[in-house]
């Protein structure tokens, strides 16, 4: 391993945000999250070790003769790390194997910026989500056919927040044999991107965005010109191509490190490049063009539900198959920070049909004299999010199967019942069990479906053992009409964004949406995603049962069963329990959970909500209507803006 020259401590590299960054920060009223001093004038020792020993590839930005930024992916000839050297803390040497169609080949021969072509790179390790970026200029370049040695003078370095990186395992692939499919570095105004290129973009979950900031003469000394490169990631298809012209890319802006480097560059210098690598096939797509960022209503008119988007009107591109000498060894693990794909206003979003999905009842569990949990297996995997509900049609069970299993008779009141019911899903499918889901429900006096389901559950557990009883042999089924519930699922906020502070308020069986949300948050925290501070306020006449359900939600997290030794360091969870009944606090809750008992019912004075800083949390209420109204009154007394409260009337 190479010896790294000992360096002095890095110093701030810049004298302030450049005019474009300042303008964008002002447009979106962004409080400063990261100080400009975080960008230093040389490579910290950890960055040097990281770049020289850990990286399989290096995304970079160079400029062409027209000043257009292009993004490239540099690798060794065999895909192994070690192709980057760091002789000093202000320099890197990259020894890479290029492929036909890579725009860096022509760009590196140009002498820009007083003979020092601008350059930027981002070191990213996809298996750990670690990334660091740097910028400066090319001080020397030499070619031997498609092998290139680049000597880079580094003047800026920064460690980054890894929010939207999809984790994947990659290995060197010695079978790479680049085949140039398209090379159109100048695309005419009337030309569109080929259909296979558009399909490649719509399948991508990872990209790297290249930008350029060209300083005015008066700003050059304070804010010198530079180029940049940043990671862009999401779910497959997060970058869209406008069907109307077939050449304008639309990138949603997800909240990142809040520096606004890329958007700031585009604000001053409206050009951008982007590269899409495929780690499953080795194909790579380079594009560049005119860039613009839209805000507010203008953004939503193009991509509904997104308040900030960037567009790239493509003026040049190249596409190479089997170029990148790397392959992923399995499916990527999607970053939980990534929101669902937002489609364009001119697109027709895909619809999901549930008409062919059936559910089979496989287990029942009686919790007390009215509560039960039913576990179903779906005929195929269903995409369900925390706090969502399912719409089930049980006519086959009610009209036929229930009569074979139970002794009951229909009357006039049941004849016209459509047998369709909606329940919140308390336990979601998981990657290990993608077709298994559970519903916790109450048998409603005077109801039709729930009393019969409860009678069935009691018939197989007459001793009320509280165990999960296998009932697959009973052949009880339902049809899935759909999955609903549009309340936003809390996504992780990293420490640099202040973490996520939640307030959940549950009345009785209104706890059930928070069971899946608890599993969601606990699993994210166990995997190191986000910083979480959750307060759950529960009002119930069945505290023992409800607490046992919450306790189970903390089990089987990603790190295994939760105990005092395995508590996620970035999760605190407080439970305030209001009940008119005496109850014992369980001793087996994990260490990060605190339980606070209260006698009686939640009042409307706002005292409790004031004590838990409700004004600074994201509130969500679920329960019967009287409970919801009382909780809202109490929140208002504590100074909470009721417009910010998510609420559901939830009776059973």
* Rg result: 29 Å
**N-to-C span:** 64 Å
Q: Which parts are unreliable, with pLDDT below 50 for 5 consecutive residues or more?
A: 1-6, 558-565
**Structural class by helix and strand composition:** alpha+beta
| Count of extended strands | 30
Strand content: 25-35%
Number of helices: 13
What gross morphology would you assign? elongated
**Helix percent band:** 10-25%
Task: Provide mean pLDDT, rounded.
Answer: 88
**Biggest sheet record:** 8 strands, antiparallel
Written overview of the protein:
The chain has 652 residues and is an alpha+beta fold. It has 13 helices and 30 strands. The strands form 5 sheets. Strands 9, 10, 11, 12, 13, 14, 15 and 16 form an 8-stranded antiparallel β-sheet that branches. Strands 2-1-5-6-7-4-3 form a 7-stranded antiparallel β-sheet. Strands 18, 19, 20, 21, 22, 23 and 24 form a 7-stranded antiparallel β-sheet that branches. Strand 6 (130-144) and strand 7 form a beta hairpin. Helix 1 (19-27) packs across helix 5. The radius of gyration is 29 Å and the shape is elongated. The chain starts with 18 loop residues before the first helix and ends with a strand. Mean pLDDT is 88; it is low at 1-6 and 558-565.
Brief write-up:
The protein has 652 residues and is α+β, with helices and mostly antiparallel strands. 18% of the residues lie in helices and 32% in strands. Helix 1 crosses helix 5.
Spell out the blueprint of helices and strands.
Layout: H1 19-27, H2 45-53, E1 58-63, E2 69-74, E3 84-85, E4 91-97, H3 104-107, E5 118-125, E6 130-144, E7 147-159, E8 170-172, E9 179-184, H4 195-203, E10 206-213, E11 226-233, E12 240-241, E13 248-252, H5 261-268, E14 271-277, E15 284-295, H6 297-302, E16 308-321, E17 326-328, E18 358-366, E19 371-378, E20 389-393, H7 395-405, H8 412-415, E21 420-424, E22 436-442, H9 449-460, E23 469-470, E24 477-484, E25 500-507, H10 512-526, E26 532-539, H11 543-553, E27 571-579, E28 593-599, H12 607-611, E29 618-623, H13 625-637, E30 646-649
Parallel strand pairs: 25-26, 25-29, 26-27, 27-28, 29-30
Antiparallel strand pairs: 1-2, 1-5, 3-4, 4-7, 5-6, 6-7, 8-17, 9-16, 10-11, 10-14, 12-13, 13-16, 14-15, 15-16, 18-19, 18-23, 18-24, 19-22, 20-21, 20-24
Helix pairs in contact: 1-5
